[in-house]
Amino acid sequence: MMELGDWCRKRKWGIMVMLSVLHIVGIFIFIRGFLLTRTELPYYSRCSDVSESPCFTSQSNHYQNQSNPLCWTRPAIDRLIIIVLDALRFDFVAPSTFFKETKPWMDKLQVLQKLASTQGTYARIFKAIADPPTTSLQRLKGLTTGGLPTFIDVGNSFGAPAILEDNLIHQLASNGKQVVMMGDDTVDLHTVDNGCIEHLLPSLYEEDWDVLIAHFLGVDHAGHINGIDSISMVEKLEQYNAILEKVIEKLHSQSGPGGLHENTFLLVMGDHGQTINGDHGGGSAEEVETSIFAMSFKKPPSSIPSEFDTSYCETDLDQKKTCISSIQQLDFAVTVSALLGVPFPFGSIGRVSPELYALGAGTWNLESANVGHWPNQKEEEWMRNYCNVLCINSWQVKRYIDIYSASSVIGFSSEDLLNISNIYAQAEGNSTCSSDNKSLHEDESYNSSLPTLKRKIDTYFNFLLSVAELARSKWTEFNLEMMGIGFGIMLISLSIHFYAIRTAKNAAGIPLPLCADSQISVKLMFAVFIVVIHACSLLSNSYILEEGKVANFLLATTAMFKLHYSIKREKMLMEAIFFLLLITILRFAIEIGLSKQAATSLFMSTHASWMVDIDPDNPMWIYMAEIIPILALILLAYLLYITVTSSSCCGIWKYVISGTILCYILIAVHWASESDTLSSITRLQGIGRNCIPKIIYAVGLGQLLLLAFSHLFHKDRALDSKKHFVSKTVAMLSTCSSTIIILSGKQGSLIALASIAGGYCIMRLGNIEQDINDKVAGILTFDPLSVTQWSLLATCLFFSTGHWCAFDGLRYGAAFIGFDEFILVRQALLLTIDTFGFSHIIPVFGLPFLVADQQLLGQTDQDRRLIIMQLYLMYLMYGLTIVATVVATIICVTIQRRHLMVWGLFAPKFVFDVVGLILADILICLAWLYFVGRGKDGGSGSMPDRHD
Amino acid sequence: MVKDSTAENPGQSVSPTQAILIHLICGVGLAVGFSVAHNVYFINLVSDPSHTLRLIWVIESPFVILLYSFFRQNPEKCSYLKAVIRGVLALPVGALVNALGAIALGAPVGSQYFQRTINWSLLMSLFTFVPPASVFGSSSEDWRRIFANTKPKGSLDYMICLPAHGAVVGAWFGAWPMPLDWERPWQEWPICVTYGAVAGYLVAMVASLVLILIQGGQQHPKSE
User: Fold this and answer.
1) pLDDT (tens digit, 9 = 90+) per residue, A642-675?
2) Which of A99, A254, A581, B104 could form a disulfide with A259 if both were Cys (CB 3.0 to 4.6 A apart)?
3) Please, how many CA atoms are within 13 Å of residue A137, restricted to the half-sphere of its CB?
4) Do residues A29 and A489 touch, judged by C-beta distance below 8 A?
5) Contact yes or no for A542 and B180 at CB 8 A
6) Would strands A321-328 and A312-315 be described as parallel, antiparallel, or unpaired?
7) What DSSP state is assigned to residue A328?
8) Hey, which residues 561-590 in chain A have their CB within 8 Å of chain B?
9) Helix A619-646 to helix A722-744 angle, to the nearest 10 degrees?
10) CA proximity to A725, closest of A618, A639, A650, A804
């Protein structure tokens, strides 16, 4: 019997570990397919790098003779004005004749349309295609770095929006270009662009800049607030039309020879589009199609060869021909770099766009090309130069791909790399762009070399486009196979979970499937229903946003179900009503948390209406807000004190709990010293701000070690009696609680009280049936609904502590309680404890309370075995509720992977759930070790067997 | 298990025809409420939930209270008037319980929702609390039989128990569309919840009729 029991226990532990490992493996494989990662390289392009390229061998001398020193490419323009209109749809700019229907918001930026149609090659409208996600930050980053955004980028940008990769702005700054940026942070629709407008026009007269960037947010705001089919949007566009008219007029007036804007280039562009409702972020055509209007004030020498002209033309409203070209936003950074003559950003994988590049080519071509008697001479000159630029471009992209594959953990496959290398070798293999020029200086040769140049350019195009395609598939496309395998493993773990629960039930002799008492099966059905409906709710973005409310709704439903039972049994009515009351209080706490989320979220507009009635500046409220948490803390300490004095627990747990009481007092002192009103009374300011938290962490760690050592070396008798069992649980919980409370801030003590009260109610209500079902040993009354409630309560606590499933929902401040300096591992640990403390750590270690109230504890070996079985079942079921939600989340992100909110909402939710699951798995294994042991040093194993 | 001690039901028995009639009249009452709101006051639940709900419960309440008071228990001890008064008193009490339940489940609170919540919970009270109050008074045993044990006996029990549960379950399901981002006016509290409750109430009335007819078909109604 003893060996059998031993073996059983080991097997239980083994199943728990196996489930955890399965979860981790499944999730890891899924993540490999779903969370696209790209490593940001810390390298920067330099002017001198170009000597490594194969492009400048023969022409470098030729260029060095010129007055200005050469970097990578010959500067084509001197000054650049970039006006970014946030969320500029393509159809805001293009003439309405390009579309099937005319909408109210079309043809409002008429100044651009007129210029594009009248001046032909001077100005042109481009359709710019962005890579999703189409959020402003990601797009601005893509525009300046010339790279593709992926989830990890997106994730990083929540915390630190700074662009660390090499980018256009960095290149401008380090190559002596003066950059002036103007933009506004105001959120008011009417004043949003005022700062920009005020500064833009005067700046045009000044000489102290080379690149001027103005970022207008008005269109984006108008879209978010009223949608694009609104009067405010039309007004905004008309306002911009007027501003642009003024800007272009001023530039024109100074664009003569020797003028301030002789070689100035104007770009009016959007960073992304928007839907009819003003949303953006996803990959729909409306969102990714934005526009670039480019204008040079000097006539380019010739039109570019028709082979490279991808434009399509229509007549506009005035019956004039307007041509529109297409450009990838990916190509923007490198094209602008080429125009300004600065090194291309290191990580750019774009291609110098021929049409945009040609627009700026007017300045130097006139000087350098000798008097051309031949019509093709200018064209050839331009082509040769462009070919050279492409040569550098290809070399730079190849260098990036090589270095990326060498330094990144998840690089490209060797097959792809070989393919890329072959294409590059093919492109480089022919003669360089300028070699013909040197050997044959006859006029006739120009004609003959044109086709060669074109072929050359085509090979470069081929290379650059295939690299972009590869990078897109690697960085922006999901690997469905991996996702499928990961999901399959999760399903397998789920079925093992079910199987384990079934076997455990049968082994424990709980006749659940063929239940004599129909009530239990009703409860089981209800519990399953609640878990399933909770999981299904995660398939919709609306329910994810309001998950706190959903969890609260379901918890309240189960509480009402329990109330129903308690009325039926005429028992524990007070507990049931109190539990409902508690849920109502939690509900208000969750709404406060949601209103915080709504303040930062783009997707939410909820706010708790009742909060308007409370004036937060009322001194009474301030005073209450400071005194109540401390009172709650004292109450908690008192509760622990009662436990210590009343229980007959042996030494070590007593000391641990006493240590926590001390911690609580310290926390109270800490809070009192932090607050303004109380510290003046108590004069506690002198105590170091970081001192108390550090002491508390140390004490907590010490307690944990003490418990662990006592568990290892002390003969464990926890399962021998109810009191031992309870005090062991309390010791563990109190050890965790002090750290969690101080990290959670002032709400911590209140939430701790709420979780104790909630746990108590669930425990009591879970045992409603017990006494009626008599005390015959061997019959377990097991209520799956209690476990469901436990996990729902944990979810509610997560949201009521002001967290939500987004990276801005992390309480970063908690990581710095007690520490001023940043050390990644330590601060991440604190942040994890704060985030998952009340929702995972406390519930998992508190779960044994659900069996603690049973009368079965301590009499016989048989009872002990049953208790272990029950604990095992509870942990399995608790794990199952979490796995169910994670599987639902996985299905959800798989279905919604192209949804516009995937990076903003679904992926963060997925990350939170997955981290929560892995943490819960580990905690469950640890808790099992702590409460039961692996068998060798477990309670009953060391006891002599009396039965069987 | 609690054993049901009341072996015999001293209340008036309800024939299937009467049951059909009662349910029909209650249903018609609701319909009248909706149509008066729509055709006389030109409001509906979406445009003016608070007033529409008030109109509906004001019109529905006499139907329910007066009808169910006919079938009061112990008619010889308890006058018709007393039963009516019981029903009237139960209206606000039931409303309070319903409102508290709704708030625990997450119904919005705040001044702009106050009136709506009150009117909605009065309507819910009419579906759930008023009929048993009129019939059983304060007999806790009967109440527990209907609401806690959900073991209705006899046609009257079915007529009270099923529609009440139907309304509550319907309201519960009616709350689910509320958080969705469809931005429809009917997603406001308590419009879709009311729709759910009314739908559940009507479906449960039909179900109770079916059960009564089945029971009527069997000559000996089950005593257990």
Assistant:
1) 888 876 556 677 888 888 898 998 888 888 887 7
2) A254
3) 15
4) yes
5) yes
6) antiparallel
7) E
8) 564-565, 567-570, 580-581, 583-584, 587
9) 160
10) A650
Give yes or no for A559 touching B (CB within 8 A): yes
* Strand-pair category, A123-129 with A289-296: antiparallel
8 Å CB contact of B104 and A583? yes
Q: For A947, what's the count of Cα atoms within 13 Å in the CB-facing half-sphere?
A: 10
In the predicted structure, residue A59 carries a pLDDT above the cut 60:
no
pLDDT, residue B219, reads: 47
Query: Going by C-beta distance under 8 Å and a sequence separation of 6 or more, which residues neighbour residue A143?
Result: A168, A271, A329, A332, A333
Q: How confident is the model at residue A946 (pLDDT cuts 50, 70, 90)?
A: very low
Q: What is the dihedral of CA A460, A464, A466, A467, to 10 degrees?
A: 140
CB-based contact B137:B86 (threshold 8 Å): yes
Range 147-206 of B in CB contact (< 8 A) with A: 147-149, 172, 175, 179-181
Place of tokens 């425990």: A763
B8 CA to chain A: closest CA distance, Å? 20
Write phi, then psi, for A266 (nearest 5 degrees): -115, 130
Query: What residue spans of A88-167 are helical by DSSP H?
Result: 90-93, 110-118, 136-145, 151-159
Residue with tokens 């209080």: A585
Q: How far apart are CA A912 and CA A761, in angstroms?
A: 28
Distance, CA of B110 to chain centre: 26
ipTM of the complex, rounded to two decimals = 0.91
The torsion region of residue A127 among left (phi > 0), alpha (psi -120 to 50) and beta comes to beta
Letter string b/e over residues A178-201, b meaning 16 or more CB atoms within 10 A of that residue's CB: eebebbbeeeebeebbeebbebbe
Across the interface, which of A556, A613, A772 has its CB nearest the CB of B105?
A: A556
What is the CB neighbour count within 10 angstroms for residue B7? 8
Number of H helices, E strands in chain B: 8, 0
Q: How many CA atoms lie within 13 A of A609 on its CB side?
A: 10
Higher-pLDDT residue of A207, A191: A207
Contact between A189 and A232 (Cβ < 8 Å): yes
Residue A778, pLDDT above cutoff 50: no
Question: Where does the pLDDT of residue B122 fall: very low under 50, low under 70, confident under 90, or very high at 90 and above?
Answer: very high
pLDDT tens for A207-241 read 888 899 988 888 888 887 788 888 888 988 998 99
Cβ–Cβ < 8 Å for A518, B1: no
User: If you write DSSP's letter for every residue of A919-935 in order, what string do you get?
Assistant: HHHHHHHHHHHHHT-SS
Query: Does residue A776 register a pLDDT over 80?
Result: no
In the structure encoding, which two tokens stand for residue A381, read together?
Answer: 């000159």
Place of tokens 């760690």: A701
Question: Nearest to residue A312, comparing CAs of A124, A552, A467?
Answer: A124
| CA closest to A545 among chain B residues | B179
Q: In terms of pLDDT, which residue wins out, B11 or A627?
A: A627
Instruction: Give alpha helix (H) positions in A177-230.
Output: 194-203, 218-226
For residue A741, the number of C-alpha atoms closer than 13 Å in the C-beta half-sphere is: 33
Distance CA A794, CA A838 (A): 7
Alpha-carbon distance B106 to B178, whole Å? Answer: 11
Report the C-alpha gap between B116 and B50 in whole angstroms: 5
DSSP string, A673-726: HHSHHHHHHHT-TTS-TTHHHHHHHHHHHHHHHHHHHHHHHSPP-TTTSHHHHH
Distance in angstroms (rounded) separating the CA atoms of residues B109 and B119:
14
d(CA B190, CA B45): 9
Distance from CA of B101 to the nearest CA of A (A): 8
A780 near B CB under 8 A: no
